[in-house]
Amino acid sequence: MANPENLTLLTDLYQLTMAQGYFREQRMGEASFSLFIRSYPPNRGYFVAAGLKDVLEYLQTLSFDQDALDYLAAQKLFSEDFLHYLGALKFTGDVWAIPEGRIFFKDEPVLEVSAPIIEAQLIETFVINQIHLQSIIATKAARCVHAAGGRPVVDFALRRAHGTDAGMKVARASYLAGFAGTSNVRAGQQCGMPLVGTMAHSFIMSFEREIDAFRAYVSSFPNTSILLIDTYDALTGAHNAVRVAKEMAGRGEKLIGVRIDSGDLAEQARTVRQILDEANLREVKIIGSGGLDEYDLSEFSAANVPFDSYGVGTKMGVSADAPWADISYKLVEYNHRPVLKLSTGKWSWPGRKQVFRYHDGAGQFDRDVLGQRDEHLAGEALLTEFMHDGKMRARYPSLIESRKVFAEDFARLPPDVKAIRDPDHYTVEFSATLNALHQDVIRTLQGN
Description:
Layout: H1 13-24, E1 30-37, E2 47-48, H2 52-60, H3 66-74, H4 80-87, E3 94-97, E4 103-104, E5 111-116, H5 117-122, H6 124-147, E6 153-155, H7 164-176, E7 181-182, H8 185-191, H9 201-205, H10 210-220, E8 226-228, H11 234-250, E9 257-260, H12 265-278, E10 285-288, H13 294-302, E11 309-312, H14 314-317, E12 327-334, E13 337-338, E14 353-359, E15 365-372, E16 380-381, E17 384-388, E18 391-392, H15 399-412, H16 415-418, E19 428-430, H17 432-447
Helix pairs in contact: 3-4, 6-7, 6-13, 7-8, 10-11, 11-12
């Protein structure tokens, strides 16, 4: 049985067939590939970098074990000498990347790899897979946090995430982008995130009376209970919650909150808030959930609906309105020769690059300039060297550190670029040196 921890075969077949082609032709020179997003999905004006940690861990352990080699041999596609070559293969290249949590924009390389071409080619599928999913989710989560207007948002996405691995990635990416916690217990264990949970309708339905279910639940959790009040009728549920809260107060206990998960959430939240306040339970929070995303949260914030926090699940966990981005991993240099792609609508920029960020007088992002790696421009250089010759350059930031990086970047992002609908597009320019290189490569190609 294959080792479930070895992900080397998590790739597309053509990566391996191309690798044998390179090997046969002895094309072993150093190649540089650039990973970037060509265009914005609907209502997006920025992206949040995420997924790099998984990429770096994968590269540090990249190897074809005997099970993988035996499987490839059984396909009758690959030569014995090529499989022998794969058996000794490790990643020996360099990785420059925009750190997790930082904001980036279309056309900007979020990651660049320089390595012998077989190594750099084989890792393409995994690199795209990890950066794409996690950056899309982190961006969706950032939009939810922004739309909530300062109210905490927690991840409820696990049950409808696209598989167990995606559920773990969603929890981490959403916390990176400002979520307050997750319902995913394993993610809490693995990543050190706060756990948040309430109760399900099934618990209440198992009792003959709703109030008996509430009493049973708070007896187990006398100081951390949040009661789900909409199983039958949210207003009746609110009155039952008031009775239980007063019984708890008599015992020196405290009800934390109530959750509304269905119906007209805004109208119910206002009525429930009135019921709680009239019972002198102003400290009891109201949590909203049930198919929410940034569009709902933005409307609630604009209307000052009295929710204190939100649970956001399915639509965030699959980035429902924008589940994919046009992300590409393109060869930009081979054997120190800059190359590019000229396909209609899919052309690329040649050479190894750097992203330089400029700020205005108030410290907000003003514009980015995409230049060549060895340029020395005045802006802040975003791409950082994380690996050199296959080894990590320094300790990788913790999730908490990356979360702080996101918060600092997001605070500097212009408000119109953050807009939930029809955002402004941030200015990304191309340096004169990079433009000149681009034109030189095109002239060379046209002369062939």
